[in-house]
Amino acid sequence: MSKPIMAKATAVWLIDNTTISFKQIADFVGMHELEIQGIADGDVAPGVKGFDPVANNQLTEDEIAKAEKSPLHKLKLKFNAAAQGEEKRRGPRYTPLSKRQDRPNSILWLVKFHPELTDGQIAKLVGTTKPTIQSIRERTHWNIANMQPIDPVALGLCKQSELDAAVQKAAAKRAADGAAMSDDERRKLLSTEQSLGMAPEPKIPTAIEGLETFSLREDDEDDKDDDIIDADSFFNLPGGSDDDEQP
User: What are the boundaries of the region Disordered (predicted)?
Assistant: First the structure.
C-alpha cells in the first residue's frame, strides 16, 4: 500500500495537528496541493473528522518531526502488516464490456499458439470460464466459424509479462514431466523476452535450396579424368594424312 487509508481524513488531521507544509501532506495522501489548501480554508471536506495516522499505525511521531523540521522531507508510510496483500487481485479478472466480445478471439489465439497452457491459466489471463475454453478447443463454440485468433496482449486483456510468466510456468512443468517436445512446441514455450534475445538462424537463399547436401563423389572425379583430351589428339582431324600435304 503506497497511500494511507482515509486520505482526506488523514490530511485533515495533519493540517490541524502539525506544521507540515501543504506540499508534504499532498504528496503523502495522494491529493493535489490546492485540495490541501482548500481543506485548510474550510472549502474542501467540511465536517470531515480527522483520522490520526499515528494511532492507526500509518505514521510515526519521529517521521512527523522530521517533516516539520525540513520542508523537503517526504513522509514515508509506516509498514503495516495488516495492509499486506490488499492490492492483490482476488477472484476472476474483470473484463470491460467493450472488450468482452473479443475475448473468444484471444482464447482461440492462446489455444492455437500456446496449447501447453492449461484451461486454468487461460481463464486467469483473459477472465473467462473453463467450459468456454473447452468449447473453443473442441471447435464446438457457437461462433467458431467467425472467430479469428488475436493476441490477448494486443487486445489489452492481459499484460505481456503475465503471458510470459504463464508460458514459462508451462515450460517448467513440461520439463519436469519429461515430455518430449517438437521444435515448434519448444519455440512456443519461449517467452517474448527470450525469443527476442535469440540469435537469428542463418537462412539459405532460395536459389540454392537443396544444394547444401551436394558432394563430389570419387567416381565423378574418375569420369572427369577420362574426359580430358590431350593437345595432339585435338589437332589430329579425322580424314587427314601426311600424304595429302602439299609440298
Answer: 218-247
Tell me which residue of 125, 118, 113 sits closest to 173, measured CA to CA.
118
What is the domain partition of the chain in residue ranges? 7-83, 89-197
Task: Give pLDDT tens digits along the chain (247 positions).
Answer: 467 888 888 899 999 899 999 999 999 888 888 888 888 888 887 778 888 888 888 888 999 999 899 988 988 887 654 455 444 555 556 666 667 788 999 999 999 999 889 999 999 999 889 999 999 999 999 999 999 999 998 888 888 888 888 888 888 887 777 655 555 555 555 555 555 555 555 555 555 555 555 555 555 555 555 555 555 665 555 555 555 455 4
Reading the block at residue 164, the C-alpha cell is 510470459
Burial class (CB in 10 A: 0-12, 13-18, 19+), 115: exposed
Please give the Cα distance from 122 to 106 (Å, whole number): 9
Task: Check if the beta carbon of residue 12 is closer than 8 Å to that of residue 45.
Answer: yes
